[in-house]
Design a protein that fits this description.
Distance between the termini: 20 Å
Mean pLDDT: 79
Strand order of the largest sheet: 8-9-10-7-6-5-3-4-2-1-13
Order of helices and strands: HHEEEHHEHEHEHEHEEEEEHEH
Shape: globular
Length: about 425
């Protein structure tokens, strides 16, 4: 996520970097891309790692998973889906969050879906692309399909299926909360963004109305826990404020009065590493926090309490992994805040349309064409730059239609870069 936002913060140097990034899809299209194989990685605490590729009509994605030691087939356990950020992988998210170790302690299964570079050059989840923001299509359907695959292959407590993400993965976690509230009991968002795609002027209440529209007939009050660094310049703290406003709006549209408009309690603390933090909660009528927001004032763009072995980690902060899971276990799908009046408690999940590819099998169908990266939200508009000149077309170019297409594409990229400034 830092690369996506950082290249747009400077004018001329930002234009050069954005131009280089814009050329990546062209280079990728001209180079041969090897198929990704599902592999088993070492390094689990004491349980069992698995991996594979899930496919449906929207495409294919690799995933890793961890089964804790002591897991007994036939005895249902919770499931956590964990989404990585830009430039990261499933394995990086494993190491960063240290979720496998917690899974061993608390006895739950965790699965890490992985974005494919052919679908986003920076391996960001496409939380801002319309088709990936809707139920039953795009990446949202693939992530839901991976979740349902895990439910069908392991003994999972369907009332305790959760999803969390960091950065672009946090933004995608927000999408999943709006599109599959009947599948996930609660959501955790680290340094994420509100629903609604890339629109700098979109207020939190507007995001909430759009999320409510996306929920449709699957409406239920969605519990959400947030983590945000006060010194984050990649995803500024104002985005956490918008996320709180979004879910206040959405949840209160689902059930009026389900979430208070003002905090019910605020507490301050200090982590074992010496980091001060503030936790703000919005409790329901039962005294259970439906929204919980953690602010670490001195933290930048990072996973709080994460492993120092990975980038975008602040090991000295409060343990976000444990705090998010503690929030999760207090919110089963059939909890008192879950179901709107007059609607039955959700039970069985729909069967996924895609089929998993077992470990060791080649990745199936080709990936969809990657979508160009639009301008992220909340960024100032730089001064105008001159429109780039048209690319000269050498004589005889009409006899090489593929080269003509390439030149047209490059010229279009130059126009788009110019339009950003």
């Amino acid at each position: 996520m830092r690369q996506v936002f950082g290249v747009l913060r400077r004018t001329r140097s930002g234009a050069r970097r954005l131009f280089a990034i814009s050329l990546l899809p062209v280079c990728a299209g001209l180079a041969a891309v090897a198929a990704q194989q599902a592999v088993v990685h070492a390094g689990s605490p004491s349980g069992t790692l698995f991996s594979g590729t899930y496919s449906n009509a929207a495409g294919s994605r690799y995933y890793m998973g961890y089964v804790p030691s002591g897991y007994t087939p036939g005895t249902p356990v919770p499931l956590v889906i964990s989404l990585h950020g830009c430039t990261e992988t499933a394995d990086v998210m494993r190491q960063l969050t240290q979720m496998d170790s917690l899974a061993d302690q608390k006895k739950f299964i965790v699965v890490y879906p992985q974005q494919d570079q052919s679908d986003n050059q920076l391996t960001c989840w496409n939380w801002f692309v319309n088709q990936d923001m809707q139920r039953g299509s795009g990446e949202a359907s693939i992530i839901a399909g991976i979740t349902q695959w895990a439910e069908s292959h392991y003994a999972i407590d369907s009332n305790r299926v959760y999803l969390m993400g960091f950065s672009a993965g946090g933004a995608m976690a927000d999408v999943m909360a709006a599109t599959y509230p009947d599948l996930y009991a609660a959501i955790g968002i680290g340094s994420g963004l509100a629903y609604g795609g890339i629109n700098p002027s979109l207020a939190g209440s507007d995001s909430g109305q759009q999320a409510y529209a996306a929920i449709g007939t699957h409406a239920r009050v969605m519990p959400v826990v947030l983590f945000q660094g006060g010194q984050d310049t990649t995803v500024p703290p104002s985005n956490a404020t918008r996320l709180v406003q979004q879910w206040q709006t959405t949840d209160n549209l689902v059930r009026p009065g389900s979430v208070p408009t003002s905090p019910t309690q605020t507490r301050n603390g200090q982590s074992a590493g010496g980091q001060a933090y503030t936790v703000t909660e919005y409790d329901d009528a039962h005294g259970v926090p439906v929204l919980q927001s953690w602010l670490i004032p001195s933290m930048s763009h990072a996973w709080s309490g994460g492993c120092s072995c990975e980038q975008y980690s602040d090991p000295s902060g409060p343990d976000a992994t444990s705090a998010i899971y503690d929030f999760f276990v207090n919110h089963p799908l059939a909890g008192p805040s879950s179901t709107p009046p007059g609607q039955p408690t959700p039970t069985a999940q729909p069967t996924p349309s895609g089929q998993p590819t077992p470990t060791g099998q080649p990745t199936p169908t080709a990936q969809p064409t990657p979508t160009a990266q639009p301008t992220p939200p909340s960024l100032p508009t730089p001064p105008s730059l001159p429109t780039p000149p048209s690319l000269p077309i050498p004589p005889g170019i009409t006899s090489l239609p593929w080269l003509q297409s390439l030149l047209d594409l490059l010229q279009n990229i130059l126009r788009q870069i110019s339009s950003l400034f």
